[in-house]
Amino acid sequence: MSNIRVRFAPSPTGFFHIGSARTALFNWLYARHTGGTFILRIEDTDTARNTDESLKVLVDGMRWLGLDWDEGPDVGGEYSPYFQSQRGAIYQEYIQKLRDNGRAYEKDGAVWLRVLGEHYMVYDEHKKCEVEKVKVEPIVIDDAIRGRVEQKVDQDFVIVRSDGSPVFHLVNVVDDITMAISHVIRGEDHLPNTGKHIELYRALGVVPPVFAHIPLILKTDGKGKMSKRDKGALIEEYQTRGYLPSAVVNYIALLGWNPKDATEVFTADELIARFDLPGVNSSASRFDEQKMDFFNTEHLRRMPIENLTWVVAPRLAEAGVIDDETDEDYLQSVLRLCQEKIRTIEDLPEFVRFFFKDDFVIDTKTLEKLRKKSDPRERVKELLPLLEMLGVFNEAGLDELIDKTAESLGHKKFDYFPVVRLAVSGQGGGPDLLGLLATLGRKRVIERMQKFIVMEI
Ligand code: GLU
Predict the structure, then answer these.
(1) Whose CA is nearest to atom 6 of ligand 1?
(2) Which protein residue's CA is at the shortest distance from atom 5 of ligand 1?
(3) 3-state DSSP call for residue 135?
(4) Strands 110-113 and 157-160, how do they pair?
(5) How many CB atoms lie within 10 A of CB 11?
(6) Which ligand 1 atom sits nearest the alpha carbon of residue 176?
(7) What spacing in Å lies between the alpha carbon of 302 and ligand 1's midpoint?
(8) Where are the alpha helices (DSSP H) in 264-375?
(9) Per-residue pLDDT of the chain (457 residues; tens, 9 = 90+)
(10) Which of 135, 228, 404, 412 is labelled catalytic?
(11) Residue whose CA lies nearest to ligand 1 atom number 4
(12) Which atom of ligand 1 is closest in space to residue 20's alpha carbon?
């Protein structure tokens, strides 16, 4: 195992935002790519928002995406505890260190970090009063994604509030030090904090980790940052809508990381093999729901049929499409036929219902359209006896039969196709017709055609 130690340090808010998920993913990919350690640390000092339920949303989301952590809640580790709320004694120890070495002092009930250099007073236009500043050289951040960034930390700053609670900057840095974090990979919104963090590392005599700030995810129209209210912003949404986690992982990896060739569809293992920090874009990316759907379709298509069956069966059962009596082979052949066509698992129950249920209704719009060209009932009547006699009820046999019937009766082959589809499925569209008929099988096809002929439509 390498010495690389990275962490995902969310503050549970009750939501698992796509931006956070991407931060988690990049840390995880980096750890797995380098043979390092991935740590989940919970920044739960804002007690009002931190409930068990908020934590559960996060942990469930991470597990669903397959982002397993080597240290953290549930799994423990040698740097425990992994909850900030349980690390108070460690923070006190580090605050004491700063007091002891003269870098922290108390003023107005709060504890401040002293920035080294000549302090002087200057009038602040915004605050409309005199403020104390420090003459300093800028701090250089050699960001692994952004490149060189300079920041001036030219004012002492609070590290413990007057109510005794240590501020984010302090606890974040102390945790990273005590957990031996080597790379801090986090959202760009934290870049403005990094100067202060480096100042704290220096005050504690510790070499700072490598920083890598990931650019924002913008809304589809490019106007502003994706917020939790935007459609597609929450991982929970993909979980409940039946997206494949591998597709979500694939899409969010490419929302910021550039594989530098035309490859788009990746499994998690392929991402691990190729991911690296220099490949992360330094400019923001835009969220695109259609692109997410594209990846979902691609991943659905590539899934071995047994896995697909296993993933979708609970949804089909929940929707009342299949039950314990459903034949497993029949289910698999239906899925094999439809696999190419489905976009999301959410759409699947409606898409395949007619394979399992006879109570579908005939789509009247399609019927009206077909009636304008020929008499649907007549076409079905012509085919029915021939289908009963057809030797082998497979795609080639059906194709030939419809072809010959059309020819001998002076119709077109495509006078039959949509009519047959409507009679056996009730719909104007769907999976490939010959495959559909072969999958339904002779018995169902014939029964449905008989019913269609006598139906009052
Ligand atoms: N708790 C911070 C957040 O959720 C993480 C800060 C960091 O990664 O350093 O944004």
Answers:
(1) 9
(2) 9
(3) coil
(4) antiparallel
(5) 16
(6) 9
(7) 35
(8) 268-274, 289-302, 305-318, 328-338, 348-356, 364-371
(9) 789 999 999 999 899 999 999 999 999 999 999 999 999 999 998 766 678 899 999 999 999 999 999 999 999 999 999 999 999 999 999 999 999 999 999 999 999 999 999 999 999 999 999 999 999 999 999 999 999 999 999 999 999 999 999 999 999 999 999 999 999 999 999 999 999 999 999 999 999 999 999 999 999 999 999 998 999 999 999 999 989 999 999 999 999 999 999 999 999 999 999 999 999 999 999 999 999 999 999 999 999 999 999 999 999 999 999 999 999 999 999 999 999 888 889 889 999 999 999 999 999 999 999 999 989 999 999 999 999 999 999 999 999 999 999 999 999 999 999 999 999 999 999 999 999 999 999 999 999 999 999 998 7
(10) 228
(11) 10
(12) 4
> Residue 453: enclosing H or E segment and its boundaries?
helix 433-454
- What distance in angstroms lies between residue 173's CA and the mean position of ligand 1's atoms? 11
188: tokens are 């760009």
Place of tokens 């995902």: 8
| CATH fold group of domain 87-214 | Rossmann fold (3.40.50)
**Predicted TM-score (pTM) of this structure:** 0.90
Assigned CATH for 364-454: 1.10.10.350
- In the reported structure, the alpha carbon of residue 293 is separated from the centroid of ligand 1 by a whole-number distance in angstroms of 29
Ligand 1 centroid, distance to 7 Cα (angstroms)? 10
Q: Is 228 a catalytic residue?
A: yes
CATH superfamily of the domain spanning 1-69+215-301 = HUPs (3.40.50.620)
Which residue's alpha carbon is at the smallest distance from atom 10 of ligand 1?
10
